[in-house]
Amino acid sequence: MKPATVRPISYAVVATLALVAIWFTPQLEKKQVFALEPVVVSRPGLEPADFLLSPIFVEASNQELVDTLAIGGVITSNLYNALNESGQGVLPPSARHQLAWSLADIFEYKVDMSRDLHGGDKFHLLLERLQKPNGAIIVNKILGAKLALSNSQSPIEAINFDTKGSNSAHYYDASGMSLRAAFLRAPVAFRRISSVFGARKHPIFGEWRNHTGTDYAAAEGTPVRAIGDGVVIFAGKKGGYGNMIDIRHRNGMVSRYGHMRGFAAGIRPGSQVAMGSTIGYVGMTGWATGPHLHFEIRVDGVAKNPRLALESRSGEPIPAGERALFQRMRQQTLASLNQAHLVNAE
């Protein structure tokens, strides 16, 4: 057997590797720093020393740090860019990107972020910022939010409040009504709109036709969710709609979903569906030139503008015994929100 060989490594190489390791070690919260005696690093038989290394002993904390942060901004192009600019210097890029989806989730019963936002709309956010022991910074929760939309007479507020007996906190508006309503505002969670309700030029026939709903352009296979609890009354192929589902809700309103690639398991006429549950997947069946979801709201068989049909639905109120506490929290949250500096404000 061939004997193993040993390659000597100088102390200078070892010291260099140690410094590189220290440089790329994640930054931790420094609790105490102790200066030690300088150490002479040299190679055997060579004088003088290669260099002096003055080490320090750092006691790092394994505790998470939590504070609050108020940010605000004005939408000029889209929500992503506005949040990215307003959070620079106080939040890492990943946290700023996730913040857009979190904000959409909070207001998903009141605002369709893909089509209700316009240039000049303003937002204020009060965040709970958390720094982990390894230095990573995330948004732990949104304590409060306010949207001032150009098409709304008054700002829409969201106050995080934990009612007694609840397993988690929920968001309530200025009057103490839950933002969680009977219907979602959009049937696709990750979305962008290709056209809105009203007349449009048909992409296949090339003529102007009344468009009886809203098209959500999304990648093929994107999950489609039921906007509210109900019963499936139709699931199959129907003319230009392609693969289509109709759901009748408790108030008699029917929501329609067309051009789907296919249906979720168990979806058939008579099936009970819950709000937010996946009923199918975005496709391009029927009269469609690209993958998207066609969404309609029908009342007494007549198509209605989904935005107008869904915007007036409200949730449950805060229990009477907790309204005084909620009002105090609301005032404190709004006071903090109003301190946020508006980025891009003219």
Per-chain topology:
Layout: H1 11-23, E1 30-35, E2 39-41, E3 51-53, E4 56-60, E5 65-74, H2 79-86, H3 93-106, E6 122-131, E7 137-148, E8 156-161, E9 170-172, E10 192-195, E11 198-201, E12 208-211, E13 214-217, E14 223-225, E15 230-237, E16 243-249, E17 254-260, E18 262-263, E19 272-273, E20 278-281, E21 292-299, E22 302-304, H4 306-310, H5 323-337, E23 342-343
Parallel strand pairs: 5-23
Antiparallel strand pairs: 1-4, 2-3, 5-6, 6-7, 7-8, 8-9, 10-13, 11-12, 13-21, 14-20, 15-16, 15-19, 16-17, 17-21, 18-20, 21-22
* Unreliable residue runs: 191-210
- CATH fold name of the largest domain, please? Nuclear Transport Factor 2, Chain: A
Q: What series of H and E elements makes up the topology? A: HEEEEEHHEEEEEEEEEEEEEEEEEHHE
Number of helices: 5
- The span between the termini is 79 Å
What does this structure look like?
The chain has helices at 11-23, 79-86, 93-106, 306-310, 323-337, and strands at 30-35, 39-41, 51-53, 56-60, 65-74, 122-131, 137-148, 156-161, 170-172, 192-195, 198-201, 208-211, 214-217, 223-225, 230-237, 243-249, 254-260, 262-263, 272-273, 278-281, 292-299, 302-304, 342-343. The strands form 6 sheets. Strands 10, 13, 15, 16, 17, 19, 21 and 22 form an 8-stranded antiparallel beta sheet that branches. The chain starts with 10 loop residues before the first helix and ends with a strand. The chain is α+β, with helices and mostly antiparallel strands. The chain has 5 helices and 23 strands. It has 3 domains: 29-61, no CATH class; 65-181 and 315-343, Roll (Nuclear Transport Factor 2, Chain: A); 192-310, Glucose Permease (Domain IIA).
